[in-house]
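Re: weekly structure request thread

Next one in the queue (315 aa):
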Amino acid sequence: MNQDNLIELFICPCCLRSSIEKTDAVAFRCIDSSCYGYQQKFSIIDNQPVLIDFRNSIFKKENYTNEQLGKVQHRRKGKLHSIIKTIIHGNGIKSKIEIKRFVDILIKDNPKPRLLIVGGGAIGNGVKTVYETTAMDIVSFDVYLSENTHFIADAHQIPLKNESFDAVIVQAVLEHVTNPARVVEEIYRVLKPNALVYAETPFMQQVHEKAYDFTRFTESGHRWLFKNFELIGSGQLTGPAEALKWSIRYFFAGIFRSKKIGQLFSLLFFWVRFFDVIIPSNYQSDGACGVFFLGRKSNSTITEQDIVAFYRGVK
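Done, posted below.
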């Protein structure tokens, strides 16, 4: 999406109501003079506006300067890193299948859909399919500067107009926010009626983003998180074997007090993940390494009785 069209979608992250306007070449502000965002001003760094309400965010304003963002800007990993990651974790085949399913439904609903990627600084497993779909109008944001993003924002306050998107992808993000339910509410708000959401979130995984790693979800818990969405599909991305491989990595990292040694053992035990192929789905659900949800925005919500009946594990 070009910058002019995107500006028309922006709203102030402080009030989540009023539009924003450019004050000059390096800043935006809320058009409502009574809003905190009118006084704060939102800087523009490398042509990307930083639309964060720092008064209500875990992120600090002093870390969002040209100098600081330049240090944390996401850059592509080398080919060797990609090969090692594929050996250890596989090629994300389940993600690719489910995101392809998501794209097919989306294109069938709308020949030129507008898609929002929450946490799109890095292109995750299967998301390349989305970028290869020329019919898609993609908007992406993250909390850091990236060649893949259009702006920087905190997902607890998505600075975009109500009902302005046909679909949202939120992959490996909800474990890194302090209030996942709030983020899902924001996703619901920016989606048009009957629009789609696709989410991936870990269950049995160790901490992998240091201080910015907060939450895990069972398959049932993940479904409950999206209780205001009609279910199209959900399940496990990877099962107990993949979870065991994660534990092997962190076990040896702890024994030897070395993350690099932990990664080495993870590489040596890459073959463990193949046991997921023979583990039944209900046993995978109880010990899944990661889960997914594909749903459609709804005017109704599931009940607590519904979520108990939803349970997919071993009964």
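The first strand starts at residue 20 and ends at 24. The two ends are 48 Å apart (CA to CA).
Next request, please.
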